[in-house]
Amino acid sequence: MSATHCVALIAPAHSYRASVFLRVAADHNISVVFVSDRSANIVPAHISGLEVNFGELTDHVQSICRQLEEFGVQAVIAPDEKYVTLAGKISQKLGLPHNSIESLRTASDKYLSRKQLKSAGIEGVPDFTLIDLRQDLDKQLSQVRFPCVAKPLNMSASRGVIRADHHVELKNALEVIEKILQFEFERGQYHEVIVEDYIGGTEHALEAYLSDAQLEVICLFDKPDPLHGPYFEETYYITPSRLDESIQEQIRATVLSGCLAIGLSSGPVHAEVRLFEGKVWILEIAPRSIGGDCGRLFELTTNSSIEEFVLNRAVGREVGTLSLERAAGVLMIPITESGILRRVEGVTDAQSIDNILEVRIDVREGERLVRWPQGGKYPGYIYALADRPWQVESALRQSYEMLKFVTKPELPVVVH
Amino acid sequence: MEHATFQNEITDSDIRVTAAAGNKMSELVQSTDESIIGIRVYVSGGGCGGMNYGMTYAESATDYDRVLNGENFHLYADVIALQYLTGAEIDYVDDGIQATFVFHNVFQTVGGSGACGGCGAAS
């Protein structure tokens, strides 16, 4: 059967998010033009695509569009946040539905998004200051209130996000962030950080789909572990939320206001919020779906997936709201000790706990495990399904207790 | 055709270990349990920023390892890693602020910088 729908998927060759989209598209008879940076990658044996150099990508938008027109693509999807703005630009040139380029740029930059949310009068936005790491720090930090949180402008997965309770801690945190930025990006490419008020309370993640100024909630996750810092790696995501219905609605309404303030108009939305003293505070609004490994929760617990939902909506197919009928959750397994992995013990025991669906270990012997804030990769995931959220949480905690990551230290090395 | 003798030993012409580095490796190995047989040098990556170099404890030698037999320590590197380390010098520097092994001269044969170029890893 020939495919009746076609999408362009823009992603780096090794994107784990892209691989899920490719698999789901094939299952649903949607052809994909894979726009990527290498010919040997995660794609199946035969797939149409354009090989491009991402370093020069913005110079080639015109020629990419010309070629995509020939394929007759109906939507352009960028599963990784880094390429969302580019997907928007290509969509714009092809005359396809898209969020405005300005809104995508704003959403991808923590400083611009906070500034926009504040100027639109959204109340639940922490006060913040933009810090230039090249300038005199003492002068710039003189007005900062404590406790505060320092964040790079455009990194995800809480990488480089550090809480500081006083001036000395903040300067140390900025030094760490500067090193992370130097390691991750070309020298001098990024040198700004925001420092914002630390907001206490509980943290929640909203997964939703935006269209016609309406926010369709897919699910609201509770994060039952206290996220007080100093680092903020994710751990437990449990749904449905145990918050009162009225508070859940408050979260949905606040995120919708935030989306509209940023200028987003359509597509998947992943938002991180805090609930503190009865008020919803926006930490993040991203125009993308939840990451592939957490999104796998939907695949394991429903007969659908978040990628299927997004793809079908993108090509204009009528699909109902994706919903989890039972309580479900995922634990992003934290790294408690950096080092070289020797072995993981207890996986069979962890898997045998009631209500555990899967214990997935993604690291292999000899791999480096790096703790936050430098680290950004979880060594594995535990998924659970039960009748009640507390049963899911309990199963995940028991299962995690069984696991032991045995490492050997990585000796400090500098290369000249 | 000439006869030759092949050996699995790393010599000074492969990797040179300074006295400071040798002393530190010896100290590290002595301070561990019996399961540790030496120090391993490894190379990973190969992306846009070149190779990444690291060191950890060695628990066993493989068929592909070469070994530098120092005073009270053994330094292991597999043959692939050794290709990227030929001509290198490993030093140890403790200046009171940072204590670290320092690899000198590793880029003469392979190029690169040893730093990740951040070419778009999934995050």
How is this structure best described in words?
The complex is a heterodimer of chains A (416) and B (123). Chain A is an alpha+beta fold. Helices cover 31% and strands 28% of the residues of chain A. Chain A is built from twelve helices and 21 strands. In chain A, a hairpin with a 2-residue loop joins strand 12 (267-276) and strand 13 (279-286). Chain B is an alpha/beta fold. Chain B is 17% helix and 38% strand. Chain B is globular. Chain B is built from three helices and seven strands; from the N terminus they run βαββββαββα. Chain B has helices spanning 19-30, 79-83, 107-110, and strands spanning 15-17, 38-47, 50-58, 65-70, 73-78, 88-94, 99-104. In chain B, strand 4 (65-70) and strand 5 form a beta hairpin. The chains are: A alpha+beta (416), B alpha/beta (123). The interface between A and B is medium-sized, with 33 and 32 residues. Strand 20 (410-411) of chain A pairs antiparallel with strand 3 of chain B, so a sheet runs across the interface.
**Mean pLDDT over the residues of chain B:** 77
Tell how many strands the DSSP assignment of chain B holds: 7
Strand order of the largest sheet of chain B: 3-2-5-4
Binned, the helix content of chain A reads 25-40%
The helix fraction of chain B, in percent, is 10-25%
Tally of individual helices of chain A: 12
Reported for the largest beta sheet of chain B, the result is: 4 strands, mixed
Low-confidence stretches of chain B: 111-123
Q: Any idea what the shape of chain A is?
A: globular
Rg of chain B, rounded, reads 16 Å
How many angstroms separate the termini of chain A? 57 Å
